[in-house]
Amino acid sequence: MSGLVLKLAPNERVLINGAVIENGSRRGRLNIVTPGANILRLRDALHPEEVNTPVRRVCYIAQMVLCGEADEQTATPQLLSGISQLSQVLVDLESQETLAQAKQAVEQKQHYYTLKHLRQLLPFEEQLFAVAQS
Fold it and tell me: How far is residue 71's CA from residue 92's CA, in Å, rounded to a whole number?
């Protein structure tokens, strides 16, 4: 069986196509077989007050599309512009590859993967800000 497999911790919440689903008291596993389902682990969700860096801003736009809070047609140019701006600053090979994957995911309307790729840049961005502040 193909698709996305979600392994959930006890009482973990996940947003699937706009519905919040909470796991029971034991570990659980969900097989998502519907292509294009919008899925967001709530533990991974960025809260508005946390959106204070360039990568987080672009992640937040992808997250809002993923959870149905932003219009895809309006957000797509914003995502592509944000990724383009990030690619001008994050010039190392690994970041460039990650941004290319995120851009491809936006173009294919795969917002789960857009967010997944962009989130990979968060630790690197934190390191850059830490170095800049020291």
Answer: 32
| Contact between residue 10 and residue 27 where contact means Cβ atoms under 8 Å apart | yes
Whole-angstrom distance, CA of residue 113 vs CA of residue 42: 16
Question: Which secondary-structure segment (H or E) carries 42?
Answer: none
Sequence-ordered list of residues with C-beta below 8 angstroms from that of 33, at least 6 positions apart, any chain: 1, 2, 3
What is the structure's pLDDT at 133?
82
Instruction: Kindly tell me the burial class for residue 93, based on how many C-beta atoms sit within 10 Å of its own C-beta (0-12, 13-18, 19 or more).
Output: exposed
Q: What is the pLDDT of residues 34-76, one digit of tens each?
A: 887 888 889 889 999 999 999 999 999 999 998 888 999 999 9
| Mean pLDDT of the 89-114 span | 95
Assigned token pair, 129: 């800000």
Task: Please report which helix (H) or strand (E) contains residue 33, including its range.
Answer: none
Can you tell me the distance from the alpha carbon of 9 to that of 117, in angstroms, rounded to the nearest whole number? Answer: 23
